[in-house]
Amino acid sequence: MIVSALLTSVGINSGLCILFFALYSILRKQPGYSYVYVPRLLAAKGIERNRYIHLQRLLPSPSWVKRAWKLSEEELLSTSGLDAVVFIRTIRLSLKIFSFAGVIGLFVLLPINCAGTQLASFDITVISSEKLDLFTISNVNNGSKWLWAHCSAVYLITGFVCFLLYYEYDYICSKRNAYFYSSKPEPHQFTILVRGIPVPPGSSISESVESFFKEYHSSTYMSHVVIHRTHKISNIIIFVKNLYRRLRHLHSEADKVYSRGDGYSGVSLRDPALDNLSEEQSLSVQEVRSAFVSFRSRFGAAIASRLQQSEKPTEWVTEQAPEPNDVYWPFFHSTFLQRWMSKVVIIVTSIVLTVLFLIPVAIVQGLANLSQLEFWFPFLKSILSAPIISRIVTGYLPNLILQLSLKLVPPVMEFLSSIQGYISYSEIQRSACDKFLWFIIWNIFFTNVLSGSFLNPLFELLDLRNIPEHLAVAVPAQASFFIAYVTTSGWTSTSSDLFRIFQFIKSILRKCCCCNRNIPDKFDLPYIYYHREIPRILFFGLLGITYFFLAPLILPFLLVYFFLAYIIYKNQFINVYAPKFESAGKFWPTVHNSMIFSLVLMHAIAVGIFTLKKFSCASWLIFPLPVLTLLFNEYCRKRFLPNFAAYSVESLIRKDREDLNDPEVPQFFRELVTAYVDPALSPLKLSDSSGHRAPPSLSDISDDDVTPLLSQSV
Q1: Which pLDDT score is estimated for 53?
Q2: Which of 228, 329, 332, 579 has its CA 20 to 30 A from that of 44?
Q3: Residues 401, 387: contact at Cβ < 8 Å?
Q4: Lowest-confidence range among 206-215, 372-381, 495-504, 654-663?
Q5: How high is the pLDDT of residue 91?
Q6: Would strands 317-320 and 191-195 be described as parallel, antiparallel, or unpaired?
Q7: Is residue 76 a contact partner of residue 84, using CB atoms and an 8 Å limit?
Q8: Of 360, 299, 349, 367, nearest to 652 (Cα)?
Q9: Is 97:538 a contact under the CB 8 Å cutoff?
Q10: How crowded is the C-beta side of 105, counted as CA atoms within 13 Å?
Q11: In Å, how far are 413, 431, 532, 602 from 418, measured between CA atoms?
């Protein structure tokens, strides 16, 4: 790729970013779009709807940027939880790393690369037609003493990243403990999940659970809730709630007719349909051999969850329960064998999905190489000869196609994780996060740098010999592609998250639809999908670390991305995203491991590049770095990782002793008995949140609408 093609991509994406920022700054002040851009503020305290149009409402303003920048970590912790703090600190960590790397890369390494003549002499007077390879280490002459600067830079960035990782790991561990000490009693702290419950003949699951825990945990056992199959009744409840919302709309329309004096026949307030549904809730469910068991102390629950309960490891299998609103109910009925087999199937499916994704990657690589595109499609040669067309096709279009293809991957990974037998949304998201991270590392990084084009035979991708040399040749050659990728997938995608383009279009369609234009905007507060955003941030971190000494020109583009992400996501936590669950920072080990992998990958590439550059002294000096980095990682695992698996005995007993003097604890234990009742088995409550007279009852729906659905669950 030449500089002019890169500038075309940067120009297009910069224009889109400015457009999204301007539209957001205007539309966020319009009351009609408050449900799109400030739903969290709207749900918390409402927004005054001013019918008068002022000039200030029609002009973009940067006040939201200042507010997001000033948001403190304590405020973020109190409103969005520790997971949000870890997410923002991940972005801050990347900003620190690449600010330090940018000083070395742009002011030391980049001039050295341009001064080399291995590929060609750099001429600043015709910079727009120069190839980006001249800005990489490939242009440094073989055996040049200037390569010592690159070797020293690898050592400096490794030490700096490890120092920051240690500090962040220690800091987040302390925040995790402080978060636990400051928390009020929560149901998940006193509750465990038990699976594989054996049931003697003539006994029920509930009797078996009560008998077992009264015998072996008599001093701490309090109560239990047996889990049921409720997916059918859950679907029915969702259907009934949707019908209820439609009836509320019909009721409001009837009120308008009545207020105009056109006559109003009134609507019955009888609710026999709800009574029938309650009967179905009790009759159409089936117990499974799993239960939530609650204890009188956190320490008692921890002991029960960590120790093997039975001589048979597949019976009385225990684990700590998630928060009640974090429970994922559909797959509690799966057995130990089914969960084990599902993991194998998911691994195979993930591999197949990764292989299939080579198709869009091959298309992208073909578009990025203009000569290959003309070879395969000669009829396009006249069109591609136009300079502006060739710049758009090679500089912008490949990354746009890749970005659109990647949009489909996170939901698929989330679905695959959901059928592995995880019991909580947070576990599903952490699993999907790991899957998506390694998916994009392989498909976006390794496949692109090792293939170069779809003309290369597949066996070249699978040749594992001399990996450092392969990487040393391939990685610098793809620098221009990844710089354009940062602008498209980083700048534009993050700015579109601020603008919430899909939600905006949905709001426009709703306003334009005659049948729905008067329906009150009923909405659930959106939450951030960590399994989509964290892998993207970590992948850009991998690009920055690996290309830091190879092609330092990528660093300013990464700094712009991380700065945008820092401002935009803090703004979204203020105005949009509400926490759905809280894992108390358990995403951090994934962040740490990804950074360590990026460092080791950089070391492998450095060994290969210095070998190719006939600078063997530097190659030998790099060899100790991956060993030292992995030793550092092992130390961190021993030092910090246990704090993310479970809380210590010291912490649990201290909190239990504090509860002895808390007057609210007795009420908490009374509520704990029913905290883990399946929502599908709870009484259905439908109420008018507006405070006006009640809307029409479900009995006004024809029995033909509800009865068939109820009968399906029997």
Answers
A1: 53
A2: 329
A3: no
A4: 372-381
A5: 96
A6: antiparallel
A7: yes
A8: 299
A9: no
A10: 27
A11: 9, 9, 15, 34
Whole-angstrom distance, CA of residue 393 vs CA of residue 391: 6
Whether residue 701 has pLDDT greater than 90 = no
Does the pLDDT value for residue 691 go beyond 70? no
- Distance, in Å, from the CA atom of 561 to the CA atom of 556, rounded to the nearest integer, reads 9
Helices and strands in the chain: count of H runs, count of E runs: 35, 4
Calpha distance 593→644 (Å, rounded): 14
Q: How many CA atoms lie within 13 A of 281 on its CB side?
A: 17
Residue 375 host element (H or E): helix 370-376
Confidence bin at 269 (pLDDT 50/70/90) = very low
What pLDDT does residue 595 have? Answer: 96
How many residues are present in the chain?
Answer: 714
Sheet containing 191-195: give its strands across.
221-229, 286-295, 191-195, 317-320
Q: What is the dihedral of CA 446, 348, 329, 315, to 10 degrees?
A: -120
* Structure tokens, 687: 């109420």
Using only the alpha carbons of the chain, give its radius of gyration: 29
**Measured distance CA(426)–CA(430) in Å, rounded:** 6
Tokens of 238: 């969702």
pLDDT at 638: 93
The three-class DSSP label of residue 226 is strand
For Cα atoms 592, 435, 485, give the angle at the middle one, nearest 5 degrees.
80
Residue pair 253/181 in contact by the 8 Å Cβ criterion: no
**Rounded distance, CA 696 to CA 248, Å?**
7
From residue 21, how far is each of 143, 278, 488 by CA, in Å?
A: 48, 49, 16
Q: Pseudo-torsion of CA 568, 570, 571, 577, nearest 10°?
A: 110
The pLDDT of residue 8: 79
* β-bridge partners, 195: 290, 317
Contacts of residue 698, defined as CB under 8 A and 6 or more positions apart, other chains included, come to 240, 243, 244, 247, 271, 273, 274, 686, 706
Stretch 171-196: mean pLDDT: 91
What is the C-alpha separation between 400 and 413, in angstroms, rounded? 21
How distant, in Å, are the alpha carbons of 307, 338, 416 from that of 427?
21, 18, 12
Cα angle 593, 545, 362; round to 5 = 90
pTM, whole model, 2 decimals? 0.82
438: exposed, middle or buried (Cβ count in 10 Å: 0-12, 13-18, 19+): middle
pLDDT of residue 370: 53
Q: Average per-residue pLDDT in the chain?
A: 79
From 35, 82, 79, 72, select the one nearest 578 (Cα to Cα). 79
